[in-house]
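Hi support team,

I'm opening this ticket because the web form for multi-chain structure prediction keeps timing out on my end. I have pasted the exact lines I submitted so you can reproduce it. The total is 1052 residues across two entries, so I didn't expect it to be a heavy job. Is there a limit I'm missing, or should I split the entries? Thanks in advance, R.K.
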Amino acid sequence: MPGLASDPGDSLVPFLPDVRDPVVYPVRHGVNPPIFRVYVSWTRGNFLQVACLRPPAAEPAGGEEDGVSDEEIGGKVVEVKLGAGDEEISEAQRRRIAYGSVPAFALLQSRKNSLAAMSRMSASSIRTEWWEHVLEYSRHISDLLGNPMLPSSTVIEDPKMIMQPHEEPTTLKAAWQLMEIFYVDKLSSTWLPERLVDWLADYDSLLTETTIHSKVEGLQKRLSSLKVVVEDDPEYWEGMSGALAAGWLDAVVKLLRLHGSYQLEQLGSRETENGLVEAVAVLVSTMPRMRPHLPAGRLGQCYKTKPDFIKAWEKWRLHISRLDSSTFWVQCSHHQTREGLRNLLQIMLGNISNLRAATCHWMELFISHFLYIRPLTMGLDEFHSLAQKCMQLKSSSSSNGLMGLFIGILGENPEVVLAECSKTLGPWMVAHAMELLTVDNGHADILLHEERYSLGDISIEELHRLVYAQVLSSHPLTWQIAPTYLASCPKQGLGLLEILLYKQPVQHYQMILKNLEICRLYELENISSSIMKIAGTYHWKHGRKGSGVYWLQQARDEVRLNKIAQQLFECIGKSISDDSFKQWEGLIELLGSQVGTAGGLEFLHKYRDFKRSLQQVQDGSPVDAARQTMESLMQLMKNSSTPQRFWLPLLHDSVKLLNWKAQPLLTVSETNLLLNKLQELSMVKLHPDFCESNLPPQALSSVRLALATNLGRAVLEEC
Amino acid sequence: MSAHQTSTMEKEVATLEKGALCCSWNYCGQRLAVGFVDGSVSIHDNLDSASSCSSKWKAHASSINNIVWLPPEFGDAIACISADGSMSLWEEVEDDTQPLKWKMCKLFESSNVTVLDLQFGVYSTSLKMVVAYSDGHVKVYELLDPLELNKWQLQAEFQNVIDSVLRFGKPSCAKASIAWNPRRGESQQSSFVLGFNSDLPQFNSSKIWEFEEDHQRWLPVAELALPGDKGDRVHAVAWAPNIGRPYEVIAVATCKGIAIWHVGLNPESDGRLSTEKVALLSGHDGEVWQLEWDVSGLTLASTGADGMVRLWQSNVNGVWHEEAALECNGMQQ
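Hello R.K., no limit was hit. The queue was backed up. Here is the completed structure from your submission:
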């Protein structure tokens, strides 16, 4: 049963019956049913990991009965990639596009911000400047999506090479070009129909399976393999009429020149026929075009202004009509040639039934209208109604995402354009094409920039950038560019960036540095401190104490550093021998190098000296060692970096020396200082934050007694 | 208009041993902890490349029903809930004296009640753990030393009912679901949502509990159920990440379907948070097992007894719908 969104009754959102059924995808996990439990987790970006578990049946009594290997596994975990998009573009190519589009996108955003800041400039000049920026952006992205065709002059002309080979066109580039033509490229708006003719020449093969392109391509293969009399071959005439209808004049002229009447030995007998072929070729190659220029190798005569063009077009059509009604046709004995050439003339005269027969897809018929019927068509509504008409005439044409996009553009329907971009071309296209859509379209601008409560107070533009950034963050190679897009999201971008940063693994030093750099760039102090804490704890717990302390210091994590200091103090207390001290020495060095407020542990050095001489005393060394120990003790107690919580353990260690039999080791003033410290400690003990050390309960009183005794003896001594 | 274009491509990342009962991913999705019917736990590493089982040990005498990872600031550590009602905390440690291993830090034994669910929340620097028990009680513990996972202090204990003065009978709870407010930050109050699957209706409905600093107590600030639905048994709850919305989004699955709730950020004059049920999504035939929001809080994934993973999204008009479904029940190889 498909899931339905249903109305909760009192909700404000009405139930919409047009919500489409979800697409169901089988997960190929390789675990035989039944499935006992399914667990999911969004791991990176929009990757979903799915764990499918088998029922944990009790161990069979006999042990291995059927021994089916499948029974040995408890389940599988698969990673499912959502929104894989069309397979037209490889992963590596997709990444190349993702990386390549970042600078253009970032530049455009920064230009947008600086233009927004320049309120003093007049609105129209800002608009013009902005439009120029978007055009530059569009051209950059367009280049990125595929290289332009190689100019034909670089290869030696092969008369049988009707179409120049060039890079396989992609739907992505075709869609981008369409949007550029209609939304951005104002300079060519006066010759929009001709721009579409050029577009079709590049992308005709993407429309459907059988196109004029595929026919001409088929014809080219036949020509190179067969030694036939071309004019007897119906496909020759069919391919030529298609090429003419689509406006590929150079291909038509090349094909005409392959006509048998050009053969030297036939010229004499087929003079009139050859004259007719050549006359058509001349007419084709001199077709007036309403455009400023033509790329090298393309045929036709360009006219920049409308009156000039109309004059030339009418004259050209007159020539065609004259040829059509001339008496030479009677003298042309070759039936196919006669019919084929006259069909070409009818196409050029804009005879709709000939055009319809010559084209395969409605888009081709649509384009042929601009060439031969209505070369001056202007305005999207005219385009739209013409497209509707062509679709009716060619109702068998299949529809695809590209055509949906085209109709959306003609229908001035940005919702449809976006939906088609999203459905057919994926999140990259939507995130980047948004700039084209809004450049000069108030309606789209409002639609895409309006903040919507149902989206959490963000605009559709921001939503799609968030979605694209999430896709980028799915792969470790593209995750680094996600912040650029998130930074352009005014409301929720940094929120998402924080979560993405928090979820990055911390095992590798270089990766941590990169992530911290991102934090610094976008002023995310909280998250950078979290990352350093996670790294610090990870290394500390995994035996890399130095790295652990380093990161915790970077995070200024006093709580954890103080706990570590406590642990170290206890360790040194237990291990006085030099060998075991060495393992801590580096760490203490590290802790001491950046004293600050957090975990300055330089006193641990003195504590080491103190412990060492104490050991010597216990080993039975002379009075000098005892004196030296007490000196260390005094230094430690006077030093402000010795944390208070270590005072009592230090004094407790020294009780034996305070009770030194031979003579008191401390002077009166020294003893008083220690007594004061002890008094301070007793006060602190009453404080609720006091942290009890691991000393015996009578430690304080035994220290006090020893100090008092020492004081008495010192007084006597100093008398 | 959908946010995700949905077509799929899958890649196997781990094979689980026989007897696997539950599993849980760590914060970055690279490690997987698996609980087994014999009480052992295994850890799979490097899920993004060549996955391998790095360690396996016996954690409890009875089967492991649930595993929860601690937040990464507290190390690589997990909590295991055993079928016998006890729970234990384990962390991965290594030092000069011992090689890398998983060490038990703390065992919470139980006498007559069992632990049903637990979740961890980080607020400023402290780690809190909410534990829900089979008798309808909730305990909140706080970690005293961020580097030692064995020192916990019981901060509060209460029942999942709105009116704490009324006396209720003793419920028998089969399942509990807890979700912390995922928002991090100093100023944020601690809060979590909790629902039960029990035989006493008052305990079932999902309630949002918030810690009141002034009186150092936990208060119910919202109830996520319409008047007629309050006794519905709750199967799962999930609190969506909030990257900047002016309201929170929480998903609650009951026998009636998955409800999507909008919850106000700030309390109203009576101290309660405003709530609005914006959708009820049905699709799973039978019980919902798990709800999981993606990082942006735009897509909700649910799993259920029908063996499907369903992905739910809202369109630009705020209408929730099922965007796609992944069929896991199929017989394929």
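A quick check on our side: Confidence is low (pLDDT under 50) at residues 1-6 of chain B. Let us know if the file doesn't open in your viewer.
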